[in-house]
Amino acid sequence: MRISFAILGLMLLPxxxxxxxxxxxxxxxxxxxxxxxxxxxxxxxxCHGDDLGGAVNWRTPNADGTRKPRPLNVxxxxxxxxxxxxxxxxxxxxxxxxxxxxxxxxxxxxxQNVLSDAEVGAxxxxxxxxxxxxxxxxxxxxxxxx
Length: 146
Ligand code: HEC
Description:
Layout: H1 2-18, H2 21-26, H3 28-43, H4 45-48, H5 83-98, H6 117-129, H7 133-145
Bound molecules: heme C.
Residues 43-44, 46-48, 67-70, 72, 76-78, 81, 86, 89-90, 94, 103, 107-109, 111, 123 line the site of heme C.
């Protein structure tokens, strides 16, 4: 009986030494989404709106041909793009994406020298957190294909 308890103890040992690491992996997530919301307020809300609703009449271009800030919430088209496109959009801005400097004024600025990769990820996570679960799943499937 004493031997089998010793064996049981040995079997439990590796599991016990792995377990304390699990909470460490999970704790950064809430602070990351809070950081994403703060980053959104500081860098994106002035154009895309506090509610992520974009500009009024966002489908109609400005008089100079530049496009208006699009909604990033579920009413826009953002969720129909894979992460790789959205990250490129945020880092490179309209001019970087479309290769046309004329988009530079009044359009989407490039954030590659403003936000770190982790911050871009945090903002994107915040944007996604406003989408209904089914929409998040549908966008996640696009990532599998990209
Ligand atoms: C100066 C205004 C402005 C700011 C600030 C801004 N954007 Fe934009 N954004 C735009 C405009 C305008 C467009 C549409 C541009 C185009 O298509 O040429 C756009 C497009 C986008 C798109 C593509 C959306 C889609 O559905 O295709 C994403 C994603 C985006 N912005 C995210 C962000 C994030 C995240 C931030 C903050 C880090 C941000 N934007 C800050 C103006 C802005």
